[in-house]
Amino acid sequence: MLRRRRLAVMSTHTSPLARAGTTKAGGMNVYVADLSRHLVEMGWDVDVFTRRDRIDAPDVEELAPGARLFHVDAGPPLGLPPIETAGHVAEFTAGVEQIASGNEAYDLVHSHYWVAGLTGIELSRQWQVPHAVMFHTLGAVKEVFQQSESPFRIAGERRVIACADAIIGATSHERAFLIGQYQADASRVRVVPCGIDLETFHPAGAEESRYRVAAALPELGVGDGPGILFVGRLEQAKGADLLIQALSKIERQPCASLWIVGGDERDDDERARLWALADECGVGQRVKFVSAVDRQQLPDLYRAAAVCAVPSAYESFGLVAVEAMASGTPTVATRVGGLASTISHGKTGFLVGDREPEGFASAIGRLLGDDALRQRMGAAAAEEMNIFSWRSVARSILGVYEELLSERNIAGAARESCCPDPVESLLVAAS
């Protein structure tokens, strides 16, 4: 009987079990959890390592049958911004090594985000196994869209890109950016889209979904008029404020409401700012707020909404848009990053070139004012999203893994790492 392959996954700055839509928890958390489950189904054993961010977090818990989540002590047991988490990389790496010393050897390391990538480099060197990395977001991309980023982060990303055996990007756009802006070796950059659970996100049962949302989240006022859905973190780069301004300019549907779903008690200041903006724009009664919900509620929310809006400054993939379209809801989004690849303009939704309220108001208003168009786009969207089934995506990821393992076998177990320095030296270089 063949031994099951074993994978070590680094998700340092955020746990895959954190609720998406809260501070520093989003598509990456969902991706790590869902990919881990599907890799187990395909014959791998998976251990995920994350930094302990609360004092009551167990040492280890089951992420899924065959997949374990280890909480590693590194810095204070509380939530930290990723840039502060980077200061505890050496401690985190040592903690992973200590836990791993009591486990069967791993065949490969897969890191998510640049902070985890620094640990992945060191573990790859220590264990003499291949290292794959996925960034989910890149600092240099954010700078293109006028969002300042720490030079420490960008230098760290460059080091991880230079050292990883494979870099996985979600779209061809991300691949081009990795090669053009970070000088990544093109032969090591693979494009594999993110996946979605098509058994959960589907268009069937929209009327029942509206009833369930109305009962579970009465503050949204589902029966009051068509809903424009925003799902995401309450940070300015995600653009909830832009949608509030757009709502005041949609003249054809004065009864439409904006449902802002995301954030938690840590976002009270931003929520208050958005409330004030809604009052200033004269739409205070039509903007509804709900804190981040469990993922089990998201399909109903997508199906209950008339339109999903994703006005982000940048999305490497745009999971919310893909989930909404898979649920049969047309999407209006900024023409940036992965959104430009996943939305077929005029067929499954609309892409807005200028990140201004007027553009979003025009596109959303067009969908709200034409039921036949909205239904036609929703059906086309659900059909197109079939390409993102998790089984297909997981097979592609396994293809990358097997290629790396074959290359390592040919090169020999004693292959020298391109970055033989310990983690401390990497951090010095990054700073």
Short description:
With 431 residues, this protein is α/β, with parallel strands linked by helices. The chain has helices at 27-41, 82-85, 89-100, 114-127, 139-144, 151-163, 172-182, 206-216, 240-247, 268-280, 298-304, 319-326, 339-342, 357-368, 371-384, 390-411, 423-430; strands spanning 5-10, 44-51, 60-64, 67-72, 108-112, 131-134, 166-169, 189-191, 227-231, 257-261, 287-290, 307-310, 331-334, 349-352. The protein has 2 domains: 5-195 and 389-430, Rossmann fold (3-Layer(aba) Sandwich); 206-386, Rossmann fold.
Protein architecture, described:
By secondary structure, this protein is an alpha/beta fold. It has two domains: 5-195 and 389-430, Rossmann fold; 206-386, Glycogen Phosphorylase B (Rossmann fold). 42% of the residues lie in helices and 16% in strands. The chain has 17 helices and 14 strands. Strands 3-4-2-1-5-6-7-8 form an eight-stranded mixed β-sheet, with helices on both faces. The mean pLDDT is 89.
